[in-house]
């Protein structure tokens, strides 16, 4: 069977099917025509206008860092178009986020939370509180671990302490008694026993 005979038979079969389904045949003719007319109407309703050259702000990929990536997503969400080239289009520039509000907020928060001396003092206080909590727990559960080890009161006091002058001037104790009190050694297990003694609480 020759090629042209096959094509003629296919066209004849197609024509027979279209003759039997007249509505489908009509839709197949009218639907592309309607689409074409709609495109012509849109072209006439919206005349052409000149668009200047667009320079879009760069958007960093996640590999550039979390902050540039978030900056590219949130600060360029509406995808603005600029007349002149943006800062991020220069050669070797990965991101232009360094002068953005988000970068300044991040830098200020980092200086405030990580580099401020007050925050470092708070961290040191927190560490000392943890050590004190562990010490009190040891005194409560296993006092035998620290039994027999006295703590000198002078070692607990800070430099420039005012307890000595308070005991001499306000309480009226002698220098010898104050010296004995400051250099006395207190055993923590005895303090724990005093706190737990019911007879002393009455």
UniProtKB/TrEMBL annotation:
The protein in question is named: Uncharacterized protein
